[in-house]
Amino acid sequence: EESPPLPPFILASPAARRLAFGSPLMDLLRSPFKGVVADVKGRAPWYKDDWLAGLRAGFGILAPTMYIFFASALPVIAFGEQLSNETNGILSTVETLASTAICGIIHAILGGQPMMIVGVAEPTIIMYTYLYNFAKKQPGLGERLYLAWAGWVCIWTAIMLFLLAMFNASNVISRFTRVAGELFGMLITVLFLQEAIKV
Hints:
By secondary structure, the chain is an all-alpha fold. About 70% of the residues lie in helices and about 0% in strands.
């Protein structure tokens, strides 16, 4: 069975991709869910084939599966230990492994973006550490309400991400240059080094 052809906007440049959507950037921002609908339409022809190709691979799929498993699990365990130290054991390796597994399963079923960061990263650890230190100093929060407060922070973050997806904000990425990506990579490297020096 032959695979369906790739949608043109997957292979095209950012400028051509905007043309493929049929409207300039600001029109996309004013058309709720247009980008999500375009993503679903572009992914739908390939969805079944992706699952069938994995099933047809037989034991050949074990090598990449083990590679991805260890590439995901080892940093998550290390970050979980760091998070446990920073939050006095309130969040630990158990939570980081569980959250990575849940997000990985959801992404495998619904995702279509191979470069999405699903696991825990150093900026995430810093955010939860900051939330913990802030909550500890507040008389109305403290350690006892840290998890509930962090949960509400995540709910508001999810609402903001939903609004960004709704108004196709990901199309703004075409306005960024490679420098932005390199700076983000450098930030993560510096944060790693900072933690290594602290230990």
